[in-house]
Structure formats: C-alpha cells, structure tokens
Amino acid sequence: MPMISYLEFEKPVAALEARIAELREAAKGGDVDITSEIERLEKKSGQLLASTYAALTPWQKTQVARHPMRPHFVDYVELAFTEFMPLGGDRYYGDDQAIIGGFAKLGTSENGRRVMLIGHEKGNDTQSRIKHNFGMGKPEGYRKAIRLMELAGRFGLPVVTLVDTSGAFPGIEAEERGQAEAIARSTEACLILPVPMVAVIVGEGGSGGAVALASAERVLMMEHAVYSVISPEAGASILWRTPDKAPEMAEAMKTTAQDLLGLGVIDRIISEPVGGAHRAPAVAAHSLVEAIGSELDQLVKLSPDQLRAAREERFLRIGDN
To answer: What's residue 32's pLDDT?
Structure first.
C-alpha cells in the first residue's frame, strides 16, 4: 500500500500511525515483545480515524474530495469495470483527455452489464494531470460525451458517468470553441436519452462542468464527495473578497452528500471506507459497483418515455423540500 498523504485535520492520526510504524520497525530485530503495544495503538488509531471522519465539516469533506490519492476515473475503470474500450474524439475538433469514455462492463465478473461509461479524469501525478487538464473539460470533451451518449442510445446501452471536476475549463480557447454551448448540449443529451442513466459524483462536482454529465434520472454521490455551483474559494472571493472564508462558504452552500440528499438534489449516498476512498480504493470500487448495479436493475424496467419523465420530474422537484 502506498504511503498515505495526510490532510491537515488528520495530523493526530498521522502521529499515531508514525509511532506504529516505528514500533513495527523496532520489533523486527528486538528481543522485547511489543506486539500488544502495537495492537493497542492500532486500535486507538482506528478509533480516532473513525471519529474524525464521522464529524467532518463541509470544508474538510472538500479537502477529502480533492485528496491527491483519491481514486479517479482510470482507477475505477481498473477496479470496477471490465472490457473497457475507449472511444476518442468529438468528430469536430479533437480529443479531450479531461473527459474519457467508451464501452465497458459494470463489475469484474464475466456476466457484468454492458454500459457506456463516461467520466472526468484528473490525473494522479504532474505529467498526467497536465495531460488530462486537471479534469477540466473543454468543448470537444463535452461534444465527445454527447457523441457517446447518442451512440449508447442507438445500441440500447445504459449510460454511467463518473463526475470529478472542479469545473469546465475556463480558458479563452475553450470560450472561442463554444464552451457554454457544448455544456448546454451535453446537459440536453443527458435529459433526452432513451436509455437509463446513472451519474455518480466520485470526487468534486463543480458547476456546469459537472451538471453536463450528471443530468440523469439517478444521481449518486460518494460519501465524502462534494457537489456545488462554485468552489468554496471562488464563492468566498465574491462575497467576502477573500478565499480565506472558504470554510464558511462551504458550510453555507450545503455541498456535502448528506446535505444534498436531504435537499433532494441527489438520490443516494455510496459509503466509503473509513478514512476515505483513497485508503481502500478496491473497497470503494466494490460499493460503487453495487450501487450502480442496484439502480440500473430498477431503471432497465422503464420505457424511454418513462425515463425522460423521471429525469424531468427529479429536476423539477429540487427545491420543494
């Protein structure tokens, strides 16, 4: 298991786990049996981690959603899907690596359900983050998503999207190529799909860049993901003229899965391992597969007209609570 990168609020846990590592190293060649002490500290560390994550603030959840080791699209492709066949290009301009998609089978068993899988990829190191533009889609990325959704409709394949972006790319070249129009048409493509669609916010769900892939009849969120119209830092900069108020902004915006489930913005929360998905990606992927599969089992029973009506109803009723 790779070394965990600790967040600021995890420092007490980091100190305990560092002490455990020291004792394990000392025990390798030592004459004194310190197994019981290691077990005691491991239990204490586990309890501290569980209590910490059970009481995360919205700002702390935002940090977890952005954790550099958090599983991204390519990780879930490896852990939660099989037979992934990527399809590139929008047939207009080029191929955007921030949004990836293609045919896949849900789950790792041979009898997995075939789906069209689309999602944001942020990258996991400097080189890959630059390649994938930190998960910020450009117009050609959203137009590629539209092409793949239309393809799924023709073949009768359910669409599954994994959303993880701070927002669509705001650069001038994206605006020149019609960013707003591409996002609007991608949102429309979701809403008129004749096949089931399940969207999962696996990390950050930022603004229209997220909505363009998340306008489904079932919207799920990982337990420590966040979903908002603007980042807490940007919102704080507008209201208070300083990003230092980001924690207060995160609290006010109700960005967490727990808040959004209560507001009716999402339909289901997918549990994560204690300490976040980055501590046990395989466990998180298993929960993802189970949740998506459960939703699709219900949705495949609906006709195209019923699916479209379900999408219309779920978005129109947001705010009624």
So the answer is: 62
Q: What share of the chain is helix, strand, coil (3-state, %, to 5)?
A: 50, 15, 30
Number of domains in the chain: 2
Cα–Cα distance measured from residue 40 to residue 2, given in angstroms and rounded to the nearest whole number: 23
Our measurement of the distance from residue 151's CA atom to the centroid of its chain's CA atoms, rounded to an integer in Å, reads 24
Shared domain check, 66 and 47: no
pLDDT band for 110, please (50, 70, 90 cuts): confident
Q: 58 CB contacts (<8 Å, ≥6 apart)?
A: 226, 232, 247, 250, 251, 253, 254, 255, 256, 259
Judge if 88 and 199 occupy the same domain: yes
d(CA 196, CA 190): 10
Beta bridge partners of 119: 100, 162
Contact 276, 69 (CB under 8 A): no
The closest alpha carbon to 228, from 248, 245, 244, 252, belongs to: 252
Q: Within 13 Å, how many C-alpha atoms sit on residue 4's CB side?
A: 19
pLDDT score recorded for residue 1:
46
pLDDT tens readout for residues 257-295 = 999 999 999 999 999 999 999 999 999 999 999 999 999
Whether residue 297 sits in one domain with residue 240: yes
User: φ, ψ for residue 148 (rounded to 5)?
Assistant: -70, -35
The alpha carbon of 251 is separated from its chain's Cα centroid by a whole number of angstroms, namely 20
Residue range of the domain that includes 68 = 61-316
Which pLDDT tens digit goes with each residue over 54-90? 999 999 999 999 999 999 999 999 999 999 999 999 9
